[in-house]
């Protein structure tokens, strides 16, 4: 009981189409991952320059203080910052007309990017120093 050859050819062609689609989507995902990784590295190097030459505050309470006293120029929030804290920081930043950047990594990654050995859920850049991070990250991304 064999299927007619035309039907087999159609099934084989459909399989090839499915394989091609999955390969092209895999390539797109890899390109997107490379782009985010490159932008991630750019943010990290700019952040390292701020840590060396600028002024900043780390942590939720000090970020709110810097926003209330209108000293903060840019706020970075990690991806796993609790939603209530995140929305409160965003609200204060909106009132102070300060940009907020949602950092792609979690609080461990943000702490490492700051050159610290502890977790950082949010940070406020008071003075960027030699870095161009405020121009490079125009608010929410």
Automatic annotation (TrEMBL):
Pfam families (alphabetical): Ribosomal_L7Ae
Domain Ribosomal protein eL8/eL30/eS12/Gadd45: 43-134
HAMAP family: Ribosomal_eL30
Protein name from the UniProt record: 50S ribosomal protein L30e-like
Record-stated family: Belongs to the eukaryotic ribosomal protein eL30 family.
The keyword Cell membrane appears for this protein: no
PROSITE patterns (alphabetical): RIBOSOMAL_L30E_1 (PS00709), RIBOSOMAL_L30E_2 (PS00993)
Cross-referenced InterPro entries: Ribosomal_eL30, Ribosomal_eL30-like, Ribosomal_eL30_CS, Ribosomal_eL8/eL30/eS12/Gad45
GO terms of molecular function: RNA binding; structural constituent of ribosome
Record-level GO cellular component terms: cytosolic large ribosomal subunit
PANTHER family with a match to the protein in the record: RIBOSOMAL PROTEIN L30
Keywords for this protein: Ribonucleoprotein, Ribosomal protein
Keyword Ribonucleoprotein: yes
């Amino acid at each position: 009981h064999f299927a007619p050859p035309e039907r087999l050819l159609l099934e084989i062609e459909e399989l090839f189409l499915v394989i091609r689609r999955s390969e092209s989507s895999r390539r797109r995902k890899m390109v997107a991952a490379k782009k985010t990784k490159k932008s991630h590295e750019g943010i990290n190097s700019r952040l390292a320059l701020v840590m060396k030459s600028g002024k900043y505050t780390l942590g939720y309470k000090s970020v709110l203080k810097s926003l209330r006293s209108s000293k903060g120029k840019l706020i970075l929030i990690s991806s796993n910052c609790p939603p209530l804290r995140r929305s409160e920081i965003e609200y204060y930043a909106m009132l102070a007309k300060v940009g907020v950047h949602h950092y792609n990594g979690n609080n461990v990654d943000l702490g490492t990017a700051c050159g610290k050995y502890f977790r950082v859920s949010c940070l406020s850049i008071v003075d960027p120093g030699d870095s161009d991070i405020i121009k490079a990250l125009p608010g929410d991304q």
